[in-house]
Specification:
3 helices; mainly beta; globular; Neuraminidase
Length: 344
């Protein structure tokens, strides 16, 4: 590893440490409040159950609510972060075809929502067609009508990856606003793409067989979670960082199985989401129930499970997506649930 890469990694880990609580005129009272919150430790509470029993990606919308995709129903749901009240924000997206895929993630630019849809079209190499809908990014317009703005599936067919694959259109997982468009991970074609608002697509970073999943951006720095190849051993679960127009990716932390997301909050620090122990059923199948963890990136490059006030690791059921607001985490689960974790 080159010296500048080592320096960059060390500086980035230092930058990603949570911010200290600022001093105030009531310093003693502030210290007592912080000490009390720390003594309580993280607290987990169920927030919502919804939809058709499947959930995937999420984002915090312009109104402060949590928005979650329901790929089985082809919809986007709005979840009130205070009460857990859930309503359908939009529907009419292509539903799942093979029990996986569909509406995978959602992101806003201004007040306009964009949804990443995967595995609703294309072919299985040596097999048959998956479906005839467009794999790509859909914009939710007025009156919640949906319109394709980028055909990622067709682009992927015309630009196959260097790694082995058997789904021609790829399996896109995460959508993250970046520059004048979005970053998109493809966990099957093992790459990160940039997709413009007018449908232009370019490869940003190609990997070996590492299965990139969740994304986060901090300025020009891109953070990506990697689930690793089968059987998704903990040592292959990593958070990596890269700058779009500079060098390769560097490892920030590793040590958790089947990573599916990464998020940063200046108040809480850098966290990743481990779905848990792969169930061994097939490539692309999820983790076994109740084996997931929320993990924190340490300064020494380890992924450390978050523990509650009693010192026990917080157990999650097949989590798929993570959002951080201050020192509170919102974790979406595959079965159509949201849990809130306070006091990180």
């Amino acid at each position: 590893m080159r010296l500048r890469t080592i320096v960059f990694a060390a500086a980035l880990l230092a930058m990603l440490a949570p911010s200290a609580t600022p001093a105030s005129a009531g310093g003693d009272a502030t210290k007592q409040t912080v000490a009390k919150r720390t003594a309580e430790g993280p607290v987990v509470t169920p927030l919502a159950e919804f939809g058709s029993g499947l959930a995937s990606g999420s984002t915090i919308g312009p109104d402060g609510a949590l928005y979650v995709t329901d790929p089985n129903a082809g919809s986007v749901l709005r979840v009130d972060r205070r009460t857990g009240a859930t309503s359908t924000y939009a529907d009419g997206l292509p539903p799942q075809v093979l029990g996986v895929g569909g509406a995978m993630d959602v992101e806003f630019i201004g007040r306009t929502a964009y949804v990443l849809v995967t595995m609703v079209g294309g072919d299985i190499v040596g097999g048959g067609p998956i479906g005839d809908a467009t794999v790509g990014i859909y914009r939710l317009g007025r009156h919640r009508n949906v319109k394709v703005i980028a055909d990622i599936g067709q682009w992927s067919v015309e630009h196959p990856p260097a790694t082995d694959f058997f789904i021609t259109t790829g399996v896109q997982y995460a959508l993250q606003r970046h520059g004048r468009g979005f970053l998109v991970t493809d966990g099957h074609h093992n790459r990160v793409l940039h997709v413009g608002l007018h449908g232009d697509i370019a490869e940003v970073r190609a990997f070996g067989n590492v299965v990139p999943t969740g994304l986060e951006t901090i300025g020009s720095v891109v953070l990506a979670a990697q689930a690793g190849p089968l059987p998704h051993d903990p040592d292959d679960g990593k958070v990596v960082a890269f700058v779009r127009r500079w060098g390769g990716a560097i490892d920030l932390a590793r040590g958790a199985s089947l990573l599916v997301d990464v998020e940063f909050s200046r108040r809480a620090g850098l966290y990743a989401l481990s779905q848990g122990h792969w169930d061994g059923m097939a490539e692309g199948s999820p983790a076994s129930p109740d084996t997931g963890r929320l993990v924190k990136v340490s300064r020494h490059g380890h992924l450390v499970p978050v523990r509650d006030a009693n010192g026990s690791e917080i157990v999650l059921d097949r989590p798929t997506s993570l959002e951080l607001v201050g020192n509170t985490a919102y974790v979406v689960g595959l079965s159509g649930t949201v849990v809130k974790i306070k006091n990180l």
